[in-house]
Amino acid sequence: DEPFSGLDPVGVDALSGVLQTQVDQGTAVVYSSHQLELVERLSDEVTIIDQGRVVASGAVATVRSSRGADRLKVELADGGTGWADGLTGAKVVRRDGNEVVLELLPGADDQDVLDAARRAGRVRSFRREAPTLTELFREVVSS
């Protein structure tokens, strides 16, 4: 239960290495943790439990891609993320520098988002993105 709790980054790396060695030797490793970034990085499969009920389960990539709204990650070479504020059909999930993650609303066209990004500046990256396990956890336990 919570094997990474209280560990500094060096301890987390050491324990991660031990767990990975066990997995490489064919041992199934089962643990519970709320440090979902680590779970996402270390685990092949995940089960999310809310109030004693399984709400999501399967391969990490499958669970991430099977739930949540359509998301786009858009990065401009320059120009920031303010261009995304006035979009109809999409809402901002998070921002980081010149990068923004948007959630497409039902019926929205991703090409409209791309057009708006192009009007704001040179598009460096435009791709779909599945929610992280942390975002997914928030979504499933709050619904």
TrEMBL record:
Domain of life: Bacteria
GO process annotations (BP): response to antibiotic
UniProt-annotated location(s): Cell membrane
Pfam families: DrrA1-3_C (PF13732)
Residue stretches making up the Daunorubicin resistance ATP-binding protein DrrA1/2-like C-terminal domain: 58-141
Keywords: Antibiotic resistance, ATP-binding, Nucleotide-binding, Transport
InterPro entries (alphabetical): ABC_transporter_ATP-binding, DrrA1/2-like_C, P-loop_NTPase
Signal peptide: none
Membrane topology: Peripheral membrane protein
GO molecular-function term, one example from the UniProt record: ATP binding
Cellular component GO terms held in the UniProt record: plasma membrane
Statement: the UniProt record of this protein carries the keyword ATP-binding: yes
Protein name: ABC transporter, ATP-binding protein
Taxonomic lineage: Bacteria, Bacillati, Actinomycetota, Acidimicrobiia, Acidimicrobiales
